[in-house]
Amino acid sequence: MKHIKVPIRRLTKLSTRRIAMSKASKARQLMTLCMSMLLVIAGSVITAPTASANDVTAKVFDTPDVRYVNVRDGAGPEYNWIGQIDAGQTVTLECFDWMYGGDDIKGPYSSSRIWYKIKGYDNGWVSDAYLNTGSNDPVTPQCDIPRPVSGRLISLDDTSTTTYEKLFLHYLFGNGETIVLPWEFFADPHFKEKAREVPVGGKGSYTAEQDRDGQELALSLHKFSFIRTSPGCYVVYDFYDFDPKDPDPIFVALSYAPAAGAHPFAIRSSGCDI
Predict the structure, then answer these.
(1) Which residues are paired to 240 by β-bridges?
(2) Mind listing the pLDDT tens digit for each residue in 118-147?
(3) 271 Cβ partners below 8 Å, 6+ apart?
């Protein structure tokens, strides 16, 4: 075997060159990694969601007396509190609805019955009186969604007892709790036609007849009221009792049933596209 002698100086140069090349390679790898991270970050910034040009925004008034505005789960102060937004913050408005009943909401500059559904909540509403929208009129389209109603829901799936029997028994033996009827209960075409004649925000009434509307609707409610809350949505409301001046003596007798422990009660329903 031959032994090749390499000068120590040459070995030193070769080793130094390899070390330098190794360092340069690591530097390039580190630089490549850094560039990749910068590109990812830049890409994230570029693709971050931004407000649409069509979004309608408003700022919460910022005054000594207004430090925040409450967010509720319906268009009115009677609905549940679900959060608050600090003064000066910007909110995105989805649509508006009118507040029904009660007094106008008083803000720092004016009063209003307008409530806006805002983004960022599943069902969050803020009073217009605390928002700087630049107008006293609505600045979004009206919400075409059912207005929430509260009470005990009666199921239409149980056909062993009719709806009018359930209501009558609740009158005689119940506790006066509000009853909510499913919106499908009001699918009568004659009621649809009557309801669509009422302008948005207006109130109407309907008298159901057995030969035209069926026994269920006629005997359950007979005459009831409704509000057209938006172009395609309505709230039905009634108070279940009996008129002592009714020509039918049976109904006259039933009108005195509360003296024997019966409980008149409210009926509500809400829905759209009837």
Answers:
(1) 265
(2) 999 989 999 999 999 999 999 999 898 888
(3) 146, 183, 186, 233, 234
What predicted TM-score, i.e. pTM, was given to this entire model?
Answer: 0.64
- Integer angstrom CA distances of residue 188 from 7, 132, 149, 195: 107, 43, 21, 11
Pair 186, 236: CB distance under 8 Å: yes
Q: Which helix (H) or strand (E) holds 32?
A: helix 8-47
Residue 154 · residue 174 · CB < 8 Å: no
3-class SS of residue 95 = strand
How far is the C-alpha of 75 from the C-alpha of 96, rounded, in Å? 9
